[in-house]
Amino acid sequence: GGRFALEMISTDGASCVMTGAYRDVDRPYRFMFEVHNHCNLDLPAGTQPQTSSSLVTVLFEEREGQTTVSLTHTGLNDDYGWLAAMSWRQSLEKIDCPPRPKNHQPL
Known about the structure:
Helix content: 10-25%
Order of helices and strands: EEEEEH
Shape: globular
Number of strands: 5
Oligomer: single chain
Strand order of the largest sheet: 1-2-3-4-5
């Protein structure tokens, strides 16, 4: 359980807050949260804002010392869905994790 608020800042410095609630945490395999208020800042012309809740599921799978992250975001309107996909892709590409120490013990 619990709630979250994430501030998103556009390239021009404008910001908005995305809020929601954690739905499931199954460490270290799955993380699910529901987004209640989406960031509808700087939407392209003609794009309908996302006004209903949506669900994000993040799966983590280890293979040969590497972690694969899979993210699914459901409940989005068609206009908003492609923007969310692009935003998630850009966010995930920015993650830079150092190699895990050989003596690492999973939580």
